[in-house]
Design brief:
Length: 280
């Protein structure tokens, strides 16, 4: 029997996690366009997608970008939306509604094939989930028309304390908390982001930085929501901690949030986002 590759195992784990967390992700984040999801409007403006275009929404998740693309291309355009999570696509289909020019496909972005040629490809908060982003990008490039555009958004590397305030203390206490492969913040600077896209053969690359804000409420809201919505693999690791360790971890995290805490007790985090545009 052929041994599973590290990439294959990682993809299977990611699909399993997304099938589990997609409903929460959609309800709390994507549906309401809060915090980093304010970037959706910017991404679509920079994409310069127009009426009658044929567009691919790569790793569409629960359909936030997809839903807006349908309006943008109009009744004479076409939108294809792909994702590997069955749960996410199910939510997206229900939320965006059916349309004869909207096509959902559950597939591996490295391997999917299209007969269609696209005017544009969009991808919001997903590039860092691909264990081999070059395979995905080069595969997408084959389906993009000459001079077609690709527009992608990722979280910044150095100014997303919503994640770091929890993850840094947790990783000190549980060193194997997150998979080391792939590095999730590897596209978090303008340089690394642009280099990855250039390596895949795209040109006219432009990266813009945006900083949004997000409030998870007071610290107890932030802490309790974190615990409540852990995916199964992470919950198992968190639950392995002793009561004392959990209490210590809570205080370490609280210390990291103090600089973002206002007088009324609410935490307001900055959230850096990078949006890249390029041409085929």
């Amino acid at each position: 029997m052929k041994k599973e590759s590290k990439g294959t195992k990682y993809k299977q784990r990611t699909i399993s996690v997304w099938n589990e967390v997609a409903p929460f992700y959609h309800k709390r984040w994507a549906k309401n366009e809060v915090g980093p999801f304010n970037v959706t409007k910017k991404l679509l403006e920079l994409s310069k997608i127009k009426k009658r275009d044929t567009v691919l929404d790569l790793a569409c998740g629960t359909g936030l970008v997809t839903k807006k693309l349908i309006r943008k291309v109009g009744k004479d355009g076409q939108v294809f939306a792909i994702d590997s999570s069955e749960s996410a696509i199910k939510i997206a289909k229900k939320w965006t509604g059916s349309s004869k020019n909207l096509h959902y496909v559950r597939a591996d972005a490295e391997k999917i094939q299209f007969n269609t040629k696209f005017d544009a490809i969009t991808c919001q908060y997903a590039l860092f989930f691909f264990p081999n982003e070059q395979k995905v990008l080069k595969n997408m490039k084959k389906f993009l028309k000459k001079n077609g555009t690709i527009t992608l958004a990722v979280h910044g590397k150095y100014n997303v304390p919503y994640f770091d305030s929890i993850l840094e203390p947790v990783k000190k206490m549980i060193p194997d908390y997150l998979p080391k492969y792939p590095e999730m913040d590897r596209f978090g600077t303008k340089e690394t982001f642009a280099d990855a896209i250039k390596k895949a053969g795209f040109r006219k690359i432009v990266v813009k930085k945006f900083v949004f804000s997000y409030s998870p409420g007071i610290f107890s809201d932030y802490w309790n929501n974190y615990k409540r919505h852990l995916s199964k693999p992470l919950k198992e690791k968190f639950d392995s901690l002793t009561k004392f360790q959990k209490s210590n971890l809570r205080e370490m995290i609280k210390d990291r949030t103090l600089e973002y805490t206002k007088k009324d007790g609410k935490i307001v985090f900055p959230w850096e986002v990078l949006v890249l545009t390029a041409r085929n």
